[in-house]
TrEMBL record:
InterPro entries documented for this protein: SusD-like_2, TPR-like_helical_dom_sf
Entries under Gene3D superfamilies matching the protein: 1.25.40.390
Protein's name according to its UniProt entry: SusD/RagB family nutrient-binding outer membrane lipoprotein
Residue ranges of the TM segments: none
Length: 472
């Protein structure tokens, strides 16, 4: 963890410890360079870094999204591609990063903002930024675990063992919170934040794009709510260019890209593109392969998923395209939004174009984002047109490819559309591929009755239990 983050977290803890000890005499000991109460802007920066880095982190110790979608294979330690989620405590690690290091900082930022001197307009925009960022993280938590502590969470003076809220109920509340946050935005700027630099027009589009994600996920279990949610999000304005995408930027010094940290800085040779990735893209003559992967003896060769693929040098590797310390974590891209709109149109929602048109937009944007020429893009689209008769396969496969190295987004598409078809590896620890992350082990110690009730309600605390919206 970088020093600035350590300082922020330590300072926050100091602030909590000293908040009840202030007086006229002790104020003489205040150090203005090390405040006991952090500015809300610092807490926002910490939360944005923690959530972005750990949503995007390919480490075997955290989210494992790239293995859930079978896009990456392993060389030295195959446990994670065999879906062992116990040895390294991935459920606990991701849970803590989202709750403790991310949302907790945003909640504290909201409290601290009340005492900061701002105009009403700027204060409203800063609060909207904190709220939208928090909703973004909640969406990740719910779509990773399912039912989770929500309404009773972060109330340590009142509730030490928060109940687990129904995931759909959380979804409905998040949609309402997005609408309220968007409505509260005023003309002007907010924080000079690390993603949008205080541009509230972009924050509004980001909020509506989260709402679009939520709405599409609801499509198979509540089509009416999905339709109104999706259409209102698109009407209000979603991400419509790469410049509006939610990208956490790394400077390569204080902050470094997590893929760089795991592949380059750590000098690890653990990860290679999977055989499924290489075969799927080769069959489609996908020009992104030339950007993303190296060749072995003149051909692309992927690793067998769930096996020990050793030695590393016998397989294609992730190219220098993914190995920069300064590459941003693109956590809600324009290409993803375009695919979500294409899916919305295929489901007969009003999405601003036909499914075929929006499919072309989505594929074209992914090609542009990945440095593919206009001519090669046109050739690819001509060879792989939108298939209205099997739109789930058409959109699902192309979105899965486009979301390569965007693990969480890719996992949502594969769970919802069931394409490409993911086969459970022979040495898997599970009875099928994962559909959710199990609850963290420490919840059974600290919040046992509530986590056990939640496990029973959802049909068992297993990685193979589907989320409420993933029923088809």
């Amino acid at each position: 963890m970088k020093n600035i983050i350590k300082i922020s977290l330590v300072s926050a803890c100091i602030g909590l410890a000293l908040s009840s000890c202030q007086g006229d005499l002790t104020s003489l000991n205040d150090d203005p360079k090390h405040p006991s109460i952090l500015p809300s802007e610092n807490l926002l920066a910490t939360a944005m870094y923690q959530s972005s880095y750990y949503m995007d982190n390919p480490s075997v110790n955290f989210n494992n999204y790239r293995f859930f979608t079978q896009q990456w294979a392993e060389t030295q330690y195959p446990d994670e591609t065999q879906y062992n989620l116990v040895t390294r405590n991935q459920p606990r690690n991701h849970f803590n990063r989202m709750y403790v290091y991310s949302i907790n900082n945003l909640r504290q930022a909201k409290a601290n903002l009340k005492n900061e001197v701002e105009t009403d307009e700027v204060r409203a925009n800063k609060l909207a930024t904190l709220e939208i960022e928090e909703i973004f993280i909640w969406e990740n938590i719910v779509d990773t675990y399912g039912d989770v502590p929500y309404s009773e969470a972060f109330k340590p003076n009142e509730i030490l063992t928060p109940k687990y809220d129904d995931a759909k109920t959380i979804y409905v509340d998040l949609i309402k919170r997005i609408d309220a946050a968007v409505a509260s935005i005023k003309p002007g700027s907010g924080y000079s934040d690390l993603v949008y630099g205080g541009d509230m027009t972009k924050w509004k589009k980001f909020a509506n794009s989260i709402k679009l994600r939520l709405g599409i996920n609801l499509a198979d279990i509540d089509p009416a709510l999905a339709k109104t949610t999706v259409e209102s999000a698109i009407t209000s304005g979603v991400i419509s260019s790469d410049a509006e995408a939610y990208k956490f930027k790394y400077d390569g010094n204080t902050f470094s890209n997590p893929v760089f940290d795991n592949l380059v800085a750590s000098n690890r040779n653990d990860f290679i593109p999977s055989e499924l990735t290489i075969k799927t893209m080769s069959t489609l003559s996908d020009p992104r392969m030339d950007v993303w992967f190296t060749k072995v003896e003149g051909v692309y060769k992927g690793g067998v998923f769930g096996e020990l693929n050793d030695p590393y040098t016998k397989f294609s590797q992730l190219s220098s395209y993914f190995r920069s310390a300064t590459t941003a974590s693109n956590l809600l891209s324009y290409a993803e939004v375009a695919f979500l709109k294409a899916e919305a149109a295929a489901r007969n929602f009003a999405a601003g174009g036909t499914a075929a048109e929006l499919y072309v937009t989505a594929v074209t944007e992914s090609m542009r984002e990945n440095q593919v020429s206009t001519a090669n893009t046109a050739t690819y689209l001509a060879a792989n047109p939108f298939n209205a008769a099997n739109w789930k396969q058409s959109i699902g496969t192309q979105a899965w490819i486009a979301m390569f190295n965007k693990g969480f987004a890719s996992w949502n598409f594969t769970r919802r559309l069931d394409y490409p078809i993911l086969v459970n590896p022979p040495k898997s620890n599970l009875s099928s591929v994962p559909y959710r992350m199990p609850y963290p082990d420490h919840e059974y110690v600290l919040n046992g009755a509530n986590v056990q009730a939640a496990a029973a309600k959802i049909g068992g605390d297993k990685a193979t239990t589907k989320l409420f919206w993933d029923k088809n």
